[in-house]
Structures are given as C-alpha cells and as structure tokens.
Description:
Layout: E1 3-6, E2 12-15, H1 29-34, H2 38-53, E3 55-58, E4 62-64, H3 70-74, E5 77-83, E6 86-87, E7 91-94, H4 99-110, H5 119-130, E8 141-144, E9 147-150, H6 152-155, E10 167-169, H7 182-193, H8 198-215, H9 219-225
Parallel strand pairs: 5-9
Antiparallel strand pairs: 1-2, 1-3, 3-7, 4-10, 5-6, 5-7, 8-9
Helix pairs in contact: 2-4
Amino acid sequence: MHRVFWTxxxxxxxxxxxxxxxxxxxxxxxxxxxxxxxxxxxDYYRLKRLYEYGGIYMDTDIQxxxxxxxxxxxxxxxxxxxxxxxxxxAVIMAAPKHPYIKGLLDMYExxxxxxxxxxxxxxNDFTLANYPNFRLNGKFREFIPNGFIYPRYYFxxxxxxxxxxxxxxxxxxxxHCHKDSFKNVIRKVFKWSRFYCxxxxxWYQNYFRNxxxxxxxxxxxYLEDLYxx
Length: 229
C-alpha cells in the first residue's frame, strides 16, 4: 500500500495499509483488493485520507529533492502534471475537506472497478467537466481560488533549471505483478541505474513523458488548450 504523508509543518508520516484500512467499503476498492491491483486500491485511499485529514500524498517511488516552499503550504490545493495532458496523482497537497478532493472521492465511491482506466484519466475528466477555468496544457495555473497546478518538472521529472525540481517520480512500477523474465529483470536494472546517473534519468524521464504525450487520447485537447487564456 502506498504511503501518505501528512504535515502540519511539525512533521507526521502515516502509512495506510491492511491494519488501518477496510478493503470492502466500496464496489471499487473490494474487487481491486481481491485482484491484487494495489495501485488502484491506493487511488481511493489517497483521496479518502486527504479529504479527512489534509496534507501531502506521495507515491512510494517519489524522491524528494529539496524542501517544499512556503507557498505550497499556504495553498488549499496543489497539483502537478505527469506530462502536459495528464494530471499527476503521485504528489497531491490539499487542505482538509477540500471540495475538489470530495468530488473525486464521490466518483470513486460510486464507480465500478475497471483496471483499464488509470486514475490520471479520472482526474482529467473530472477536472475538465467541473472546473471551466482549468486548461489541460502542462502550464502553471491557478484554476480555482488558492488552488494551483504546476508543470511536470516541479514534481515528476528531473530538471537542471532553477524552477521546480522539488521531487522526481521514478515510475518504478513495484505494484505490477510481472514475472521475473529476462526482459523484466533488465527493465528493473535499468530503472535502478537511473538513481546513479542523473543525466540518464533526465533524458529517459523526459523522453518517456513526451512519448506518452504524443500517444495520449487527450493530446487533441492539449493542443486546443495550449494557447487559451
């Protein structure tokens, strides 16, 4: 189970797992848990605990590179892009009882589980349908009062620039149930090698995200929103 980081600037870390979560409370969580689709289980609980407590959610393969600034903690909602037409779900900051988180949570509490639908698509569709000031273009924007979304180089990909670079999402995929084939072993070795070669990590992460951008079903919407105010 993914970890959730809560903070009141005093520092508290809570891990949500089988000891403090009930996996039969919705028709989304129960089949996801039974099918050992751990990432989908966490899709629901990251929202539930953020709504209840507020704080920071991070995937377990997020590497924090430098302290988050004060303006993040003064905001009511902080999101980032995974790539230019996909909202990231790996780092989420929210105040308790935030209506954006509540809206997403309500969707998860009524929808049926479908492992083919990634949570990034659910975030995209919900945000586009309910927040007319939002633009799916990969750029910084305050799309609701005191609610912000940041470019991918803030939380997701390495950067050598001065702006952003607060964390890196390594996409380790530890929740996949892959067999230990030769191909998968090589893939794991390559992923781990990126921790020791920053230039390789920078190149691969940005190459991979650009590839996802071009292939995305939201690419057309991205182009439409790219130059909208």
